[in-house]
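Final report, closing paragraph on structural work. Over the funding period we assembled a curated collection of sequence-structure pairs, and we close with a single example.
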Amino acid sequence: MAAKKKANVLDFAREYLRNNRTAPYAEVRDAAKKRKLTLYPISYGRAQALEGIVKVAKYGSKKKEAKRAGKAAAGATRGRGRPRGSKSKVSSGLESIDGLVQRIKNLQAERDDAVRLLDRIRALLDAR
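Its predicted structure, as stored:
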């Protein structure tokens, strides 16, 4: 007994696009629905690519292109074996000490605010 060939939605979409190259997705989807097929946007796009309606980049070409561009940009600015970010300005010891002192002052101010807040909470609780 011969098996009945199942309708393929991709074949249907390709055939529809051969007859009407400018057919929008909704039109092809509705025609497929009449034949009890479900057309997804990815299938529509693939059918367009197979029929030569849209250009398709080689698989992995964008990844390779990005890698080449990254190497070209990074290779010119960093030397061999230098870690990323080493192009940044090297801070002198004086700048780092000033930053440390400022950070300590900020932490002391935060601590003083927290102590004042705790004192107010204690006063409110004692007033009860």
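The chain has a mean pLDDT of 82. The longest helix spans residues 93-126. We thank the funder for supporting this effort.
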